[in-house]
Structures are given as C-alpha cells and as structure tokens.
Amino acid sequence: MKEKLKVFKKKSIRYPLIIIGLIALVVSSHLYLQWCQNMLSTDLMLKFAFSWHTEKFILGSLVLLVFLLFLISLAGSVLLGSLLYAITIAIVGFADYQKMFYRTEPIYPDDLKMVTEFGLLREMIGTWPFIAILLVALVGLFFFGRAIYKSRLLSKKMQIIRVAGLIITAGLLLYISDFNKPTNLLRKEYDKTALWIPYSQKMNYYNTGFVGGFLFNLKVEAMDEPDNYSKKTIESITEKYTKQANKATSSADEQPNIVFVMSESFSNPQHLAGVTANKNPLKDYYEIADKTYSGQMLSQNYGGGTANIEFEALTSFSMELFNPQMTTPYTMLVPKMTEMPSIVSLLKEQEYQATAIHPYNTSMYKRKDVYKVLGFDQFISEDTMTYKDKLQNNPYISDQSAYKEVLDLLKEEQQPQFVHLVTMQTHMPYSDKYTAMEYSSRSQGNKNAIDSYMQDIAYSSEALKEFTEELQKVKRRTLVVFWGDHLPSIYSDEIKADNDEVLMHQTEFLMYDNQGELSGQSKHDAITSPFYFSPTLFEQSGLKMTGFYQLLNNLEKQVPAFEKNFYYTSSNWHKTLKLNKAQEELYEEYRMIQYDIVSGEQYSLKTDFYQSKE
C-alpha cells in the first residue's frame, strides 16, 4: 500500500511539473522569436509580450503550444518532442534575425522551402555556423526518429493518448493554416487587437508579433476580386487596347534577338549619400548607358527578392497588385498554373528559340518548374554550362563566362533567339573574393564589404562592355535589357538613415540595340519598374505591340514606376498611391487583367490580347 502511495505521489508531482515545464518552454521560445524579430532588443521583446501586445503574445503562445504538443504526440516522448521543438524554434529565430539583418524583412512561411538549399545557406551565413546548425538539426532529427521507432513499445493506454493527441493537434494545425479565411476563429481573435500593415511586412511583424505576422502570410488568394470583374468587362478592356495596338505599324525589318540580363545586386553605391570611392566602379557600364536608353529601376526589395523582380520582368505583372501574403509567386503561384502569359510565350508564338541561363542550381525558387510553365525551350544551369570560369576566389561562375554562353546561342542565324540570363558573380557574401582590390570607399560603416562589392560590380561592368562589343559582330539585330535586381545588403544603419528609403530600392538599368536604333536612346535618366521592360522595349525598337503591352505603355506614361510603399507620379515619389481620374482608370484596367490571369477565370487568354498581329 505504501509503495502504491509513493508511486501516486510521484505521478501527482510529476504531471504538474511537466505541464509547468511545457508552458515555460513555449513562453521562453516565443520570447526568443520576438527577440530575434526585434533585432536582439530585450527591451522591445519584453514590452511586446508584457506591455504593448500581451493579447497577441498569448494567442501566439497558444499556437506554439499546439505545435509543441503535435511534436510530442508524434514522437511519443515529452522529452524528445520538446527537444525537436526547441531546435526548430532556435533555427527559425536565427534565420529570421539573419533575414532581418541582411534584407530588413522577416521570414515568411514560403521561405522554409529554402531549407534544402544547403550551398546557398552556407554561403550566406558562413561555413562554420552552417555546419553547427546542420549538426544540431541532424542530432535532433536522429533522436526524434529514434523516439518514434521506440514509441511502438508504449503501453496500450499511452498509445491511445498519443494517437488522440496526434489527431487533435494535427487537426488544430490544419485549422490554423487557414488563418486567412474570414471565418477562422483564431484570425477573429487576432483582429480584435491586431493592426495589420500589409504594405510593410517588417512593421506588420513588429505590430502583431512574429507568430501573428507568420500566420498572416500563410496561404491566401493571389489577389482579391476587383469590383465589376466579369467576362464582359475583360472583353471590353482587351478589345479596347488590342484595337489601339493594331493601329500602330511595325518598323522592324526582321525578328531581332532579344536578351534579358538580370544582374545580381548590380547598382551604383555612389548614388547613396555617405558612400564615395577613389574611382568609379561602373565606368564601363556608363560608357554604354550614356549612349542608350537607361536610368533607374524601382526594385521591390532591398538585399534580396531576386525571383520577384524576375517574375515582373518576364510576365509584366506587378507584385504591387498582389495580396501582401503572395510573397514569392515563383514558388507559391506559377508552378500551380498550366499557362502564364509572358514575353516567353509571346515570342514562342513567333518561332523564337527561348533559353534561360542561370549559373547556379536549378532548384532555386522552383525555376525549373517555373520556366516550363512560362514556355522556355531549355534551361542552362551551372551543371550544363559550357563556360564555368570563376574570378579568383569568387565561388560563383563569372559574368564573363555567362555572356560567352549567351553569345554561343546568338550564333544561330536561322532562328531568332530569346535568352534570359540571371547572373551570380555579384551575389553575397562580399568578402574574401578577390586578392587585389582596386577600389577604396569612404563610407559610414562596413567599408570592407563595400570595397569588395565595388570590385565585384567593376568586373561585372567590364564583362557587360565586352559583351556589347561582341554583339556588334552578330549579324541579326540584337536587343538587350540589362538591370540590377536589388541593392546588396551591405549598407549600415547610418547610411540607410541618411538616404530616402526609395534610394535603397533603385538599381541601374539600360536597353541596348546593337544597331543603335532605339527611339529613346538619348534618354539616360528614365525611372521605371521591371514589369514595363517588355512593352517599353517593343515600343522603342519598333516591334509590333500586343494589346497587353499597349495597356502597359499607356500606364507607364502616367505612372512610370510603382511598388508597395513607392509610387512615382508627376515626377515625384509618394508613399501612397495618388492618382487622377485618367491614371486611376488605367491602373484599375491593369489590375483587372492581372486578377483575371492569376486568380480569375482567364477570360483574356481566350482573346488576342497577348499576341501581336501584323
């Protein structure tokens, strides 16, 4: 009897201790996530949890508790389920801090798909931190898997409790994943106190907490349905602009080669206040840009977001029009579609050979799947490139090698070529790449990285100049659109503070014609967005316009550049969209067409809107 009493006392003490321990683990892990989100500010972390946003902290903690109980049920072990939970939260928090540091934006649910990109992750965070994180994760997974295997030995009663817990927590996680449904009870509770800030994900996470911001970015429709959306409305828009396009005559004598070059992190650091250099690293670039149509491109992101800029340039659809949760169309939208109108599909109808080149692996941003949907004939990656030379200690294939790959394709004289190149040479990290540094910057902080970056873009400029010189030997007329996708994440807080935020989102771009016949080549101070590239190129080179490109050209003349939080109208930048009646009509027609393709019935695909007819 005494032995039974002792066992009963032990159990009665143990279970409350387990509950207290689990609650302590959830609260401490939630505080850790907030600490990482607030850039390691303990003061902001504590104020968020216990002063400013306590209700949201409690709701977020409940979500984390469900996740913890799910892992415990799956493992059949409180200890090992808690261990995997702690490791997972630790890695997510570290990743969020790293992304906030380099790109000033938080981790999104879709970013978790990058977990298998070992090579890129190692290069971004450093070899030893990456190895340490990988080892911890592998050890955790080993013991977690071992626990699942041993759980078959649990008693029948414990198995029933475990399976019931697994079913309940899995069901709750599925329900939580529908956070953006209007009827979701968790979302309704958040809405009582949450101030969602969709135009700024950084502020959105700041105001609603890491968990709230993360939930807000779970699955959602790409766009909300505009008022008056119908087949009749779409047909009216497509007919209107197709007629306008058909009135214009083409001045092109032959089908030209078209080359898109998205240059990784290519920008002019000396455009920023607080950054100067002993000489101009973009000297070769400006020798080309100052003789052709060129200027500044508005990039959606700072320090990253390459795939989104690429999406805009190829499809001529704008990220600004999407719901804020549609953070990466390449992974969240395009692979689910069977057809997406783009410059690729347009040129394929005109018997072009379409090739994508990326001197890296094929899995990044699901490019292999995306390029197939867009209609590319082939995708040349680092594994299939002929030219793979690298510059000194740079881990990435050089721009010079990438351009040689393009030039080989342009030797084909029987068929016009569309080549889309995404370079890698100037990708982060910006240290230890080069043995000799020709450029010395004067800047407020991070001088070594800025000097290395200047050397990088100088080599990139030189390679571009050599490429355009080689294009003079190509018999077929060849048109090039060259742009930098975003600024590098190397600038200190002092530099950012000394510059208008929009300057941190402006990169260089130019359009080049090897026959020198662009209509706007005397303009060197243009301001544009990447979704305008194709229609602008068609207009300036005398190629036959489509109805879609005609709509975009009309819109560009009224609103030359826009992204969330940045709108360029009437020669001024604005934080919010301010349009007159004519501008608003064009903007709404464009929004209607984009909705029709990405979330609607695709009525416009059944017309000639995306085709050019002679």
Automatic annotation (TrEMBL):
Pfam families: Sulfatase. It is a multi-pass membrane protein. InterPro entries: Alkaline_phosphatase_core_sf, OpgB/LTA_synthase_biosynth, Sulfatase_N. GO terms for cellular component: plasma membrane. It is found in: Cell membrane. The keyword Lipid metabolism does not apply. The chain crosses the membrane at residues 12-33, 53-71, 78-95, 128-148, 160-177. The keyword Transmembrane helix applies. SUPFAM superfamilies: Alkaline phosphatase-like. Keywords: Cell membrane, Membrane, Transmembrane, Transmembrane helix. Residues 256-542 form the Sulfatase N-terminal domain. Pathway: Cell wall biogenesis; lipoteichoic acid biosynthesis. This is Sulfatase N-terminal domain-containing protein.
